[in-house]
Amino acid sequence: MTQTDPLARKLRDGLERLGAALRADQWAALADAPLNPTQAQILNFLVKRGGARVGAVAAELGVSQPTATDSIAALERKGLAQRRAETKDGRATLIFATARGRALNETLQTRVGATDRALAALDPAEQAQLLALFINLIRNLQLEGAIAPQRLCVTCRHFRPYAHDDANAPHHCAFVDAAFGGAALRLDCPDHEEAKEAEEIWLKFSRGAPTGDAAREAVP
Amino acid sequence: MTQTDPLARKLRDGLERLGAALRADQWAALADAPLNPTQAQILNFLVKRGGARVGAVAAELGVSQPTATDSIAALERKGLAQRRAETKDGRATLIFATARGRALNETLQTRVGATDRALAALDPAEQAQLLALFINLIRNLQLEGAIAPQRLCVTCRHFRPYAHDDANAPHHCAFVDAAFGGAALRLDCPDHEEAKEAEEIWLKFSRGAPTGDAAREAVP
DNA sequence: GAAGTTAAATAGGATTCCTATATATCTATC
DNA sequence: GATAGATATATAGGAATCCTATTTAACTTC
């Protein structure tokens, strides 16, 4: 592909538009809070991961390492994050959210913005569709090396796509040993372990249910 | 809704992730160009619209008006945009891309980044699905007043959803007087005219094809 | 152990991005 | 038509983001 195809170009424009709306939303949600969207995003990442290196923060935000250092310093000044030496590697620094940081993150994460409402207004089938498409895109970006590996179900060694007949919960997670449906697929699971045979799992997943109705819905 | 529902929350996270990837992409694509993603986005907007007011630029980017003024000034310093008095309204300023600006925009828009490739890797049916979902979301945001009115087919008075029997091109545009399919729906059409009966058009569109197979695909 | 690689910090600087306010101009009202 | 209010932008002021290039320290490899 030497040229963007028109539809992909349109989708990028749409993504850009939604991204801008999300960013504006975040500023609005933080109007009374002592931080800005970038800091809030880092804080949430630190809480979710229970600490992270500077490089991981930079990769998560998609910014350069010095920028991550800058923003982490801002969080530190505000007493929301702390820096500790990494024992395994003397070059590295681990960043943690403080108790105050965790508490603040908790209140911020429950706030509902315009984008949340727009997403919630989709009907459940559309939401599930969108989630599947996002997972697909994130996986594509990961394969390209454009983003750091995400903790997706579809690349996890515990994931068994279409292990069950139940159309509402066809998948199985071997870690929690439970069946679940497409709407419960995760983008960032703490129990994730990268599968060696990720490609194989993906094929099984993207092929859809293995029964007769696996035929494409586009076909009448 | 006083609390984000879990799936909507997950979708917001996904959107955030894709937005970050897109931003990183834009920086990479502009590595050798004399501007940054924000300026490039403004420049593209100015070219698409053939000029815009400061306020419209701010609304498009989802930033405050002074921020838009700042970035427009940066484009002006670089000789890529120009400011003119708006004749209709003495308070307003119209911003235009210069010939150099238009030329630069042209070369930049043809560049293909990681996000474009990730989108292009989706199969055509998935791309069409994603476009429909984006349109739905953008419309929801517009209804909430969270973003400025976009020039969408689905809110245009020339749009006739499912006017034809052809499953590949069921819609009709009365402006160009031609049939077209879901993949050709626009997010920013220069010929757009806001429909008075937008809600009605939307209902007709979202209900799907009016024939017997209009039943929800979720139903067996 | 030397050379190369990697993680983070530092330096330096342009720009983004905000809120608050000033200025002009338009619009609606008495 | 004068006046009050609303609107469009610019300005002021300042914190942070964000970059590239470089330095420092620590790990890794041969």
TrEMBL record, chains A, B:
One Pfam family linked to the record: MarR_2
Coiled coil stretches, renumbered: none
Gene3D superfamilies xrefs: Winged helix-like DNA-binding domain superfamily/Winged helix DNA-binding domain
Highest taxon of the lineage: Bacteria
Domain HTH marR-type: 4-139
InterPro entries attached to this UniProt entry: ArsR-like_HTH, HTH_MarR-typ, MarR/SlyA-like, WH-like_DNA-bd_sf, WH_DNA-bd_sf
SMART domains: HTH_MARR
PANTHER family per record: HTH-TYPE TRANSCRIPTIONAL REPRESSOR YETL, TRANSCRIPTIONAL REGULATOR, MARR FAMILY
Protein name: MarR family winged helix-turn-helix transcriptional regulator
